[in-house]
Sequence to fold (354 residues):
Amino acid sequence: MDLKDIDALIIKLNQELNLIKNAKELEGFRLKYLARKGELNDCFEKLKELSVEQKRVFGPKLNTCKKELEQRFKEKQSLFDKVTEEFFFDYTLPGKKKEIGSLHPTTLTYRHIISVFNSFGFEIFESNDIESEYYNFDSLNIEKNHPARDMWDTFWLDKKYILPIGSKKDEFKSINLLLKTHTSPAEMRFMEKNNPPIRMVNMGKVFRYEATDARHEFQLHQLEGLMIGDDISLCNFKSIITGMTRKIIGQKDLKVRLRPSYFPFVSPGLEVDVECFKCHGKGSKCSLCSNSGWIEMMGAGMTHPNLYKFAKWDRYNYQGFAFGLGVERFAMLKYQIPDIRVFNSGDLRFTKQF
Ligand SMILES: [Zn+2]
Fold:
């Protein structure tokens, strides 16, 4: 064996590799030279017959040669793979359709209502799902043992599991925690942080400890609104609510009526009904309004003076109104959905329709 032989072999192999035009020829080259029984391995076999000094010269030379060839072989192989892939790619095939998700009807309804409130200058306020008994009941004029507490079946929370990390147990000793049963606690939290005049709207989840059926769900979304100033009257309320409702439903001449009602945190309390937007108030053979011609839209009223006291405002200087409506309930009316339970069902056949 001579160094010149090896150099000649390397030149020969490189030339052959350059001339290869397809994957079949490349495989032949691999079998002839690079495989276990190929010519390059024969050279390594011949090394064994050489002296130690010769091995020191020929060994590294052969190793470098083998590595370079293998590298060039791989480059050529990837080139052919790419060519093969491109060759077999059929550009006439129709493309794969990507599934695009859609917004949940609750989100769509919420965004639509919020955009109307924004156009009336109401700012959005966010609040927590977990509330204290004080904010959910006491500060809203619903004291302990008040019969009105029966209106909201409550999920009470075991403090043992939900105390914030690092908090001392004593801090929460006198506080009872719950999943908020309505969005009204946001009113008090907002009033404590801001000074009048205020225009606030809050949307959040509310939770009720009750059995579910087509009209009842244990988790819903509610929207709360609050407007307070020096001289906000029931006339302002009627004007703003009528304008808003007409904009939300999209009927310029929609009739709106107020009925007396009771909620502990307002005085007087009101129910707001709108003319049925399916039968246009006719009330004949209409499943949406049960033939009454009217649809219950929201609960509302003038803010109870006791709330100003809890917020440490002067109760004689300010007045205003508050209202709350169920987002799912409104979506049910708008899209004529017969069962409230489908909203949280995760059933794509339902959500994909919007
Ligand atoms: Zn109707």
Remarks:
- The chain has two domains: 3-88, 105-351.
- Residues 52-88 form the longest helix (37 residues).
- Strands lie at 123-124, 130-132, 155-156, 177-179, 198-207, 219-229, 256-261, 266-275, 294-303, 319-326.
